[in-house]
Amino acid sequence: MAVALPPTRLSVLAAGLGHSDDVLAKDTVRRRHGPYWYFRFEEFDRRTGQTRYRREYVPESELARVRRWIRRSRAASGRGRAVLSFLRHYVTGVEARARRRARMLASDARARSWSANRPASELINPRFV
């Protein structure tokens, strides 16, 4: 069973690739010489666990509808990325403040333990007495 993932891009394949200009000029019957629009996307197959890259031809009459679909999909995923980015920055800040607080408490504890183990005569600076 294949699951379609969000669209990735809409690409154009230029007309007449591999043809000389005179072949296209001699074409009296109007054949499709492009541009050709392809919708490229990736599909995840749950059965095999692999991601496949696919493309489908988009007729010019459907091009506006497909572009709207891509724009909406990108907007929705952009909002999700914005929320995740905000949460990542928030959590990083909280963790940084916790580390800073722990360092300050550790240095205060070291200072207190140093002064607690010294006699009062060592704690008084003789220059200020």
Can you give me a brief rundown of this structure?
The chain has 129 residues and is of the alpha+beta class. It contains three helices and four strands; from the N terminus they run E-E-H-E-E-H-H. The radius of gyration is 34 Å and the shape is rod-shaped.
General description of the model:
The protein is α+β, with helices and mostly antiparallel strands. It has a domain at 2-13 and 34-88. Helix content is 50%, strand content 21%. Strands 1, 2, 3 and 4 form a four-stranded antiparallel sheet that branches. It is rod-shaped and about 105 Å long. The termini are far apart. The model is unreliable at 13-19 (pLDDT under 50).
Describe the structure using short key phrases:
alpha+beta; 129 residues; single chain
For the largest beta-sheet, the strand count, sense and barrel status come to:
4 strands, antiparallel
What structural class is derived from the secondary structure elements? alpha+beta
Q: How much is the radius of gyration in Å?
A: 34 Å
Uncertain residue segments: 13-19
Helical element count? 3
Please indicate the percent range of residues in DSSP E strands (runs of 2 or more): 15-25%
First and last CA, distance: 86 Å
Average pLDDT, rounded to a whole number, is: 76
Helix share bin: 40-55%
Overall geometry comes to: rod-shaped
Topology of helices and strands:
Layout: E1 2-4, E2 9-13, H1 21-26, E3 36-45, E4 50-58, H2 63-116, H3 120-123
Antiparallel strand pairs: 1-3, 2-3, 3-4
